[in-house]
Design a protein that fits this description.
By secondary structure, the protein is an all-alpha fold. It has 2 domains: 205 residues, no CATH class; 104 residues. 72% of the residues lie in helices and 0% in strands. It contains 14 helices and no strands. The longest helix is centred in the first third of the chain and has 34 residues.
Length: 398
């Protein structure tokens, strides 16, 4: 009989081979990051600066409108409140990017308007030289056609998105006609316009500005009335000056608390404001110096009446001085909210010692404004540091 065959242990060899086989090496692939684009950074910085300039101009124009003044005050209080909540100064620049877009629309529309203006000047000159001549009629027809084309082109650019490239597109009007015949253009424009109006938050800023004005005015009205009576009764004038000095010490902190919490009752939480001061005494002292010193130069503009058409320049100067002061006040309020324990008494007393000089200077300037200001005793109530940017008395043209 042939010998029996032995089974081959395939399973053992396979197992041993699997164990002995080296593990495959895995290499991690890394993708190199794109190098920073300096042109992109320059573009962002340029866009931000342009938006800030456009926003400042828009707010300056609003100061020439009585109801617009409350919008400007509400904007500054909202900027102060955001800085107080986040403790970041950059958060106080609200609406810079939308303002840049609106400013771009204004600049593009203005550039496209220049040829129309040139043709209108030529047409007017031709009308003066030869009112019934053929050349005059040609220029008048050209002016009418250009006006119609300008209106259609600007409208088409706005409907397309309102960016600069849309204004430079020579086919903007045909594309607008194509979208019109496709249908739904009216509903789209209506919805986009409504969304843009909602993003402006005009009722919110107006309400915030009105309540901010009301709370500050309630604190200031009694000292200012007494200060105005100092000509007749010197004792009342001294009492009003003392009360005004005491009020301006607390009012910036109270107004910053109101802006942060959006509660009118915050204007009367004096003890809470004192606790905030104890937690950030030097910050509040610095904010008070900035706010009062920024308001003092604005009284120079009251020496002589400003023409009604130039009131927005006064508003521009007001924004240049007071908006940074509001941001600093919000920063001080934010530093106080960050801490839970009072600072050392040395820092608290140091903050108290540096406050009286600037408060005294501010009270002296306010008292002197009724003698130097164009509006006399009513200049006392033009508290730029706490109230409206341009008072209503400037809008009478007197």
């Amino acid at each position: 009989m042939p010998p029996a065959l032995k089974p081959i242990p395939l399973h053992r060899e396979v197992y041993d081979a699997a164990v002995a086989a080296p593990e495959p090496q895995v290499y991690e692939a890394t993708v190199a990051e794109n190098p920073p684009n300096p042109f992109g950074l320059v573009g962002r910085v340029t866009g931000w600066v342009f938006g800030a300039a456009a926003l400042t101009l828009a707010l300056s124009l609003l100061t020439a409108v009585p109801l617009g003044q409350f919008l400007v005050l509400g904007y500054m209080l909202e900027a102060c409140g955001r800085v107080a909540r986040t403790r970041r100064i950059r958060d106080g620049f609200i609406g810079v990017h939308p303002a840049a877009r609106l400013g771009g629309i204004a600049v593009a529309a203005f550039v496209l308007w220049l040829p129309l203006y040139a043709v209108s000047v030529i047409a007017e000159s031709a009308r003066v030289i030869d009112p019934a001549g053929a050349t005059t009629k040609v220029w008048e027809v050209a002016l009418t056609v250009m006006m119609a084309v300008y209106v259609l082109h600007v409208t088409a650019a706005l409907v397309a998105g309102g960016r600069v490239r849309h204004f430079l597109n020579p086919l903007a009007v045909p594309l607008l006609a194509l979208r019109f015949f496709r249908g739904g253009l009216y509903a789209e424009c209506r919805d986009r316009l409504w969304d843009a109006a909602k993003e402006l938050r005009l009722p919110y800023y107006f309400g915030l500005g009105f309540r901010g004005f009301l709370g500050a005015f309630l604190w200031l009205v009694v000292p200012l009335v007494l200060l105005g009576q100092g000509h007749h009764v010197p004792a009342l004038g001294l009492l009003g000056a003392a009360l005004l000095g005491a009020v301006v010490i607390y009012l910036p902190a109270l107004q910053a608390r109101f802006a942060r919490e959006n509660r009118l009752r915050a204007y009367f939480e004096v003890l809470a404001a004192r606790r905030d001061y104890r937690r950030a005494p030097l910050a509040f002292a610095f904010a008070l110096w900035v706010q009062l010193l920024a308001a003092i130069p604005l009284y120079v503009l009251k020496i002589e009446a400003i023409p009604r058409e130039l009131i927005f320049l006064e508003g521009f100067v007001f924004l240049a001085f007071m908006l940074p002061a509001r941001l600093v006040a919000g920063w001080a309020c934010g530093r106080a909210a960050k801490r839970h324990e009072p600072r050392h008494f040395v820092w608290r007393w140091l903050g108290r010692l540096v406050v009286p000089p600037v408060v005294f200077a501010y009270v002296v300037v306010v008292f002197g404004s009724q003698h130097l200001g164009w509006h006399g005793i009513s200049s006392l109530y033009e508290q730029h540091a706490f109230l409206l940017p341009v008072p209503f008395t400037d809008l009478d043209g007197k």
